[in-house]
Amino acid sequence: MKKEIWFGLSIMAMVVLAAFVLLPPVAEMTNGHLGLLMLALVVVAIMLGFPTAFTLMGMGMIFAWLAYRAQNPDLAVTQTLDLMVQRTYSVMSNDVLISIPLFVFMGYLIERANLIEKLFKSMHLATARVPGSLAVATIITCAIFATATGIVGAVVTLMGLLALPAMLRAGYSVQLSAGAITAGGCLGILIPPSVMLIVYGATAGVSVVKLYAGAFFPGIMLATLYVAYVVVIAKLKPHLAPPMSAEDRYIALPPVAQEVSSTVSNKVLPGLIGAIKGKRNASVPMEELLKQLGIALLPAISALVIMGAIFMAVTAPAPVEEAQGVVAMSDGFDEAPAEEEAGGLAEPEGDGLKAPPGTEAPVAKVATEAAPAPAEPVAAAEPAAAQERLPAPPAFWIGLASVAVAMAIFYAYFSFARLEIFKMLLGSFFPLALMILAVLGTIVFGLATPTEAAAMGSMGGLLLAGAYRRLNMTVMRESVYLTAKTSAMVCWLFVGSSIFSAAFALLGGQELINTWVLGMDLTPTQFMILAQVVIFLLGWPLEWTEIIVIFMPIFIPLLPHFNIDPLFFGLLVALNLQTAFLSPPVAMAAFYLKGVSPPHVTLNQIFAGMLPFMAIQVFAIFLLYMFPAIGMWLPETLYK
Fold first, then answer.
1. In terms of Cα–Cα distance, which of 222, 228, 197 is closest to 211?
2. What is the C-alpha separation between 66 and 506, in angstroms, rounded?
3. What is the pLDDT of residue 330?
4. Residue-wise DSSP of 85-152
């Protein structure tokens, strides 16, 4: 047998042995012990290869029947079937889950638009002078494409076909190449929009919008740590990641760029402006020169638009509060009782009741009309003052000066070769980045719900596939079929998880675990470390879907006792579950890559290449725990 099979069988044997040793004899078993037995049997059944969703449903139904049978044998079957129907209906009526098929459909469309080859080539040339440029370009391409699609298997497979042969031809280490592809491809389940965050939000009852806002910077941090590791390794051990040769960095220029660079200037702005004004380039069409100049000025125009939008935001006038006029009127009313206390209330003691009732009304009316009079000039003056813009803070002018200096340096080095790389990025990187930011921005800033943003993303995927001439009936049919298949799997997982957790609660398993954990008298820090270690170990035999739908309902009820925010716990879990794709023996990313790698690349080499990136993931979890603001700053700022 293979080592992986022995490893899996040994883990199953340990689970079964632990169940027999730790659980009491059958005659002494309580319902709580039956719940723990059900949990152990589910883990073993999943490792044996049974479908997760139907394993959860089957085990849940059997043990729910046992729980109901202990209470009333006559109604056990009816109550069990009622439980299944109610739980299924509650899952199907969950509005949050509507966004899953839309995001999945967007991912399959983008995958079939064949953008990844163009994106990898452009990123490869853009990072040519960075140490380990091929691996760096691989990680960045994987991160962007995995974020846009959210399909780990597709990204790892495509990059295995595209980047792995290129890195091996360039003399890169097999381990480093495999680690960069597998680790980069898994970033799609962390960086929003991520299906995993939707599943956790629906399971834990946490806002998906806040999860997206919180996971953005941890995802960027993890990708940055990957890139930094590759750069350091390439610097310290150049034989593992040789630098690119001059021939590989060569970029063929179009005839217009060759003509202008040879006769006027090699720099884009001086060359194009000189060619437009001078007579030395009569053979170059003016229309082509203006077109190239417009493309070259796009970074400056974008920076100008962004800084203009920031200026309008920071100098916006203070909003007029309608409550000010009411407050002024109340001030006028407050003064009236003071005057009455001085002497106005003293007279009614003797003859106040003898006065005719009608004579008091005019007095009250006059007091009412006279009281708000002082507030009118204030209310009239406020709208005029509110129209004036506020002065820009010094930080804005410092930022504007920094942007201006950066643009000057950028254009000083902006050659025609770099202009060609910029054009490649315009056709591959920027469309994907803009679509991701548009979908994520509308969710995070409250402009759309996750479902509405997912629908916009699906439309963006259709437009991208159409723009790259890849939209046809075959692509649509495959995308719709795969979307329906994936969505059905996720929804049945939720149904199975709901039935399983209900049976677990009916048997008292959750109460038993709560009593055991609380009896350990742990501090919040100790509980957090224990939970993350358990999740990390569960990632070795199980996938992230099983960990979330089975074990998160066990951890979530314990969080209020330790005063742990479920949002922050979810961010730690999302980082931790990155290891589920990289940890043997169920490291799916390794098997995806092995399926498309050359014969001489062994599974052990792929596993060895993934281990340093697993260590980086653990370090990222430590950083997020020590500095919670990495994940919590954005949601706390946006949703105070």
1. 197
2. 10
3. 44
4. HHHHHHHHT-GGGGHHHHHHHHHHHHHHTT-HHHHHHHHHHHTTTSTTHHHHHHHHHHHHHHHHH--H
| CA–CA distance, 112 with 465 (Å, rounded to integer) | 7
Residue 598: cis peptide before it, omega within 30 degrees of 0: no
Question: Would you say 562 and 524 are in contact if contact means Cβ atoms under 8 Å apart?
Answer: yes
What's the pLDDT band for 1 if we cut at 50, 70, 90? very low
- Is residue 336 scored above 50 in pLDDT? no
Task: Assess contact for 587 and 156: CB atoms under 8 A.
Answer: no
Cis peptide before 193 (omega within 30 of 0): yes
Q: How far apart are CA 614 and CA 609, in angstroms?
A: 9
Residue listed under structure tokens 């504007």: 400
Rounded (10°) angle between helices 31-47 and 473-506? 150
CA 258 to chain CA centroid, nearest Å: 43
Q: Report the alpha-carbon distance of residue 237 to residue 599 in Å, rounded.
A: 26
The average confidence (pLDDT) of the chain is 80
Report, as an integer, the average pLDDT of 337-352: 46
Is the bond preceding residue 319 a cis peptide, omega within 30 degrees? no
Residue 484: φ, ψ to 5°: -65, -40
Tokens matching residue 504: 């677990």
Give per-residue pLDDT as tens, 55-80: 888 888 888 888 888 888 888 889 88
95 vs 481, higher pLDDT: 481
Model confidence at 183: pLDDT above 80:
yes
Closest CA to 325 of 384, 380, 388: 380
| Distance of alpha carbon 493 from alpha carbon 549, whole angstroms | 7
Is residue 468 exposed (0-12), middle (13-18) or buried (19+ Cβ within 10 Å)? middle
Q: Output the six-digit token pair for 329.
A: 């009127």
Sequence-ordered list of residues with C-beta below 8 angstroms from that of 336, at least 6 positions apart, any chain: 367, 371
CA 105 to chain centre: 17
pTM as predicted: 0.76
> In this structure, what are the phi and psi dihedrals at residue 606, rounded to the nearest 5 degrees?
-65, -45
- Judged against a pLDDT cut of 70, whether residue 479 lies above it is answered with yes
CB atoms under 10 Å from CB of 165, counted, come to: 14
Bridge partners of 415, per DSSP, are 267
The residue whose two tokens read 């889950």 is: 97
pLDDT of residue 637: 86
Answer whether 457's CB lies under 8 Å from 435's CB: yes
| Pairwise CA distance, residues 348 & 361, whole Å | 15
